[in-house]
Amino acid sequence: MTRPTSRTLARYGLEDARVTAELRTMGLAVDSSAAPGSEDVLAAISRTGRPDLAVHNLAAVLQSAPDGATLLRRLHENPRFRARLLGVMGGSTGLSDHLAANPEQWHLLTEEAVPGELITAAAMRAVVFRSVGVDPDDPVCTGTEGARATVTGGSAVLALRRAYRSQLLIIAAHDLAPAVESSLPVTALPAVCQALSDLADATLQAGLSVAAAALPAGVAPVRLAVIAMGKCGAKELNYLSDVDVIFAAEHPPAAGGEAPDDTRMLATATALASGMMRICGQAAWEVDANLRPEGKAGALVRTLASHAAYYQRWAHTWEFQALLKARPAAGDPDVGAGFAAITSPGVWSAAGRDSFVDDVQAMRRRVEANIPEDLKDKELKLGAGGLRDVEFAVQLLQLVHGRTDEDLRLPGTLMALRSLIRGGYVGRTDGAEMAAAYTFLRRAEHRLQLQRLRRTHLLPEDQDDLEWLARTDGYTATGTSSAAEVFTADRNRHSASVRRLHEKLFYRPLLHAVAAVPSEELRLTTEAATARMAALGFRNPDAALRHLRALTSGVSRRAAIQRTLLPVLMDTFASSPDPDAGLLSYRQVSEALADTPWYLRLLRDEGLVAQRLGALLGGSKLVGNLLVRAPEVLRLLVDDVSLLAPQPDDVRTALLARSRRAHTAQEAVDAARSARRHEMLRLACGDLLGLIEVADIATGLTSVAEASLQAAYEAALKQVTADRGGRVRGRLAVIGMGRLGGAELSYSSDADVIYVAEPLDGEDARGGMDDMSAVADLMARLLGRPSPDPPLLVDANLRPEGRNGPLVRTLEAYRAYWHKFAAPWERQALLRARPIAGDSELGTAFILAADEFRYPVGGLDSRDVIEIRRIKARVDAERLPRGADPTTHTKLGRGGLSDVEWTVQLLQLQHAAQVPELRITRTLEAIDAAATARIITDSDAEALRGGWLAAARARNALMLVRGKPEDQIPAHGRELMGIARALGYPEGGDPGEFVDDYRRATRRARRVVDRLFDSS
Q: In whole angstroms, what is the distance from residue 523 CA to residue 514 CA?
């Protein structure tokens, strides 16, 4: 054998001075003293996770070992032993330190042990039990009965730690060896996890024996079962995991007919459990009992009857999901079996609970929300595409389908995934890809934890540590890429697979259940698909499956694209407030656009559009209703810039240009209505996506309504002119009133208007007014034709004498009426008057005349103030619908729109003559002007503004969610959840938080209203 030279060391990357010196002490670095086979040793060292560390750790072990020469000889002669020892030396500082402190244990690595074969549960149990003086053949400790440890106290902890680490050393050595010697078989991940779990069981049992030995004489007898949960319960434990447990206790068989004393028995059980947790925590790993009923606040130990009562009455869905992995691990096996019998029925009926979907979604969000932003990309466990995503997906499928399929009732993730594949709940290819990703992530987590024997699942930031991790997992440099770079590329690929397969695992098999698929594909039965739809939150699973069948059946290109799109959309629908409505709307839109070539292509090629569409349809009936008739808005969902680009003036110009190209009056108004529909849908989408503020929504809706009225005016004027021989004898101005005049329209607002007309010079006065009345009447009829869109109803009832008065009046007639007959409320109504369509000169003249009336010099007299207060009290008493909640009615409720607007308008009537800044039609601007003029305080202004905005936003959200006008916030249910989501409250949060915020804002506003309105 060629002996190593300095050039050889350089070839193996071992030329560092300290490394060379340590190699020299071991006879590996120089020609004159190197032993035969040294180059093989050097080659093996170079393949370890961190060669310099392997050399340093090996030197430390050789220095402390009394039979170091024998060790070194075995290292040269036995490649299997060499790979195991060097794998540990270069992969784990913690185990290397243990071996240096206990050098005789190197002999443990000479046996051809493979986890699951020579490292059996019985062999590990024997080592661990004997370390604390328990004969493995004696009956195990079950509480106060069975074999107790003869080694106790601190000595027991040290002995148990040493024994535990010795077995951990064997497992890790066989796990790490193939990266050093590629000819060795790879130790399968399940075998490693099984061995670690068996070692944990033995350690828990030994800890219980030590704790029992420490009990004082005379304690009440007890049978205690230790129930393993989480990864230990599933026998898929990590090298460094907390061991999650639950304790159950019972009395031994009664003797002498004495009534058992639960208090004394549970006191003993608690002392035993606490002692075992302390001993195992000091010797091996933390024992975590926080999954017990009521968590940290609950009793550490309960009787079986107490457990049964809790899980039958109080347990949350997530607790049953956790119990899916429960198994007796130590202590009394009969009590452990009793616990399993009590809890198992709840596990396999959890998916039928009313709260199942909400609980599962809330738990999923909680996991993601708890990850600090700067750690999300480093998380192997909790981050997107991490271990928890795989485990969560598999467990949810188990809970849904395990109710009827007992083959799925398995605790381990990989075991359960294989069973899901066999049963057809997961496709073979998808399942294999998911299993490969899970195995990769778990192996990476294991090697991370072995590096320094620390509990972690965060990828290291230090590149040297990342290179160490990659090499320990068997990665090598490739071309110009380091091992760390190759590892990172694989990690990104596997994480992306997990993210992508998550939606496929849930949703694609649903499509296979309802559509024709290739014969080699496994598929869900219709019954299984129905169960899964119900578990995902669909209230009518049968109808949902019919929608899927209609969308995906057949061999057309359209059906194929739908089968690709729907898994993404179904995920979005399932997390929306109303999954059923979302899927129904999507079917309706898809059928309406079946012959539109760009529709499905846009959804397929622009992922953001599909996601946004799913969220919008699942959260808003208004969007679904409008989208069928305005599909071109979908193109604007590509990005925020496209959605926000249209400006009110540009929309108005385009609307009027389009209507003016029409040939008939009805076509002109239909064109305007189409443009209004398009703009209303755009604004609704921006609103739901949180991109447009309520004031801008009002501006946009008002602008497009004004343009529609102008288009209707022009069309009606053209039609009446044609009908009357080519000329009309008057001119007409349309004056906006109410929310239209205030530029504060909501999605459900009518168009309040009044008309002012004048005969043309030299024309018959009556004829001119008749012509203008015909124009006004035709405008309203053209705009009021039945339509699926939210109508723009023209309401002229605010005119003098209301419905009984003439539809149009001359300016002089208005002046005369205001002078002789007008009531105080009519001054108030005119505060929002503003020309919006028709003859601009006449509209301006009307406003000048109205100013004299609505801004009276000297303000209102006391009688007018009293009358306005009386009318307001009457409105409060009579117009609020019977049964309505006055604290959550957005228009007429306390502190809502009406309260704030009446208060602000009273201030305008009283002060606008002296304060010109108050002569504005918008409520929020009037509030600001009143505060600037010191008529009200800043805090009062803030309260009024807050109440008005809260009510305006909620009113818009009601229309978005329900698709029809509504002013009352619902008390509970999906609609309330939808409204909260539409207003930006988080998915899965308590919608009561929104209601509390709303009531808080309107209460503040109402206090100001009560003070200002009654004392003004």
A: 9
Q: Which pLDDT does position 953 carry in this prediction?
A: 97
Fold for domain 131-347? Answer: Beta Polymerase; domain 2 (3.30.460)
Which phi and psi (to 5°) does residue 792 adopt? -100, 80
The beta-strand segments (E) located in 559-610 are none
Instruction: Answer for the pair 460, 469: CB distance below 8 angstroms, yes or no.
Output: yes
pLDDT value for 522 = 40
* 593, two tokens: 């656009």
pLDDT at 712: 96
pLDDT (tens digit per residue) in 890-911: 999 999 999 999 999 999 999 9
In 3D space, the residue among 263, 237, 363, 245 whose CA is nearest the CA of residue 300 turns out to be 245
At a CB cut-off of 8 Å and minimum separation 6, what does 992 contact?
none
* Rounded distance between C-alpha atoms, residue 27 and residue 51, angstroms: 17
Place of tokens 């035993």: 272
What region, left, alpha or beta, does residue 221 occupy, with left being phi > 0 and alpha being psi -120 to 50 degrees?
Answer: beta
In tens, the pLDDT along 908-947 reads 999 999 999 999 999 999 999 999 999 999 999 999 999 9
Count of residues in the chain: 1016
What pLDDT score was predicted for residue 258? Answer: 63
3: three-class secondary structure by DSSP: coil
Torsion angle, CA of 468/473/476/478, rounded to 10 degrees? -110
Domains of the chain: which residue ranges?
1-110, 131-347, 356-395+406-503, 651-854, 862-1015
- pLDDT at residue 457, rounded to an integer: 85
Q: What's the CATH number for 651-854?
A: 3.30.460.10
User: Which residues, including other chains, have CB under 8 Å from residue 59's CB and lie 6 or more apart?
Assistant: 22, 25, 26
CATH 1.20.120.330 fits 862-1015, yes or no: yes
Low-confidence ranges of the chain (pLDDT < 50): 1-2, 32, 515-522
d(CA 431, CA 437): 10
- Whether the full predicted model's pTM is greater than 0.85, yes or no, is no
DSSP-assigned states of every residue in 96-130 = HHHHHHSGGGGGGGTS---BTTTB-HHHHHHHHHH
Predicted local confidence at residue 509, as pLDDT? 59
pLDDT value of residue 503: 61
pLDDT of residue 113: 62
The answer to whether the 356-395+406-503 and 862-1015 domains have the same CATH topology is yes
Contacting residues for 775 by C-beta, under 8 A, at least 6 apart = 713, 716, 717, 720, 728, 732
CATH class of 356-395+406-503: mainly alpha
- Name beta bridge partners: 914: none
Distance CA 675, CA 993 (A): 37
CA-to-CA distance for 205 and 283, rounded, in angstroms? 13
How many whole angstroms separate alpha carbon 872 and alpha carbon 892? 10
